[in-house]
Amino acid sequence: MSVVLCFLAGASPSIKLLVEDPIVVNPGQTVSLVCITTGGEPSPLLNWASSNDSLPQRSLVKGGTLTLPAITSDEAGVYSCVASNNMGNPAKKSTTIVEAN
């Protein structure tokens, strides 16, 4: 009898936010948050999350970019980009959006 073992190589992703922290905005401004992944095998999935329970209904997600059109003061908070695959822990980066005085 012989036994064949297969090992799957993989790596957990790392991510980077291409924005300042915190982001200071005026109500009515459009805000775009850009998140990029490096590494990760298999290719990671990107998701956005908000400290306000869910993303604003008007928000748009395209690839790693989250766009918040005509932001309101209620939408200020912490926004997090999470990259995950089935290898290791997910990578997470966050930024805070605050209203200008």
UniProtKB/TrEMBL annotation:
Query: Which stretches make up the Ig-like domain?
Result: 13-99
User: Which regions span the lipid bilayer?
Assistant: none
A single Gene Ontology CC term:
neuronal cell body
Q: Which organism is it from?
A: Muraenolepis orangiensis (Patagonian moray cod)
Protein name, per record: Ig-like domain-containing protein
One of the Pfam families matching this protein, by short name: Ig_3
The UniProt entry, under InterPro entries, shows:
Cell_Adh-Cytoskel_Orgn (IPR050958), Ig-like_dom (IPR007110), Ig-like_dom_sf (IPR036179), Ig-like_fold (IPR013783), Ig_sub (IPR003599), Ig_sub2 (IPR003598)
Q: Which GO terms describe its biological process?
A: homophilic cell adhesion via plasma membrane adhesion molecules; synapse organization
Q: Where is the signal peptide?
A: none
Q: PROSITE patterns, alphabetically? A: IG_LIKE (PS50835)
User: What GO MF terms are annotated?
Assistant: axon guidance receptor activity
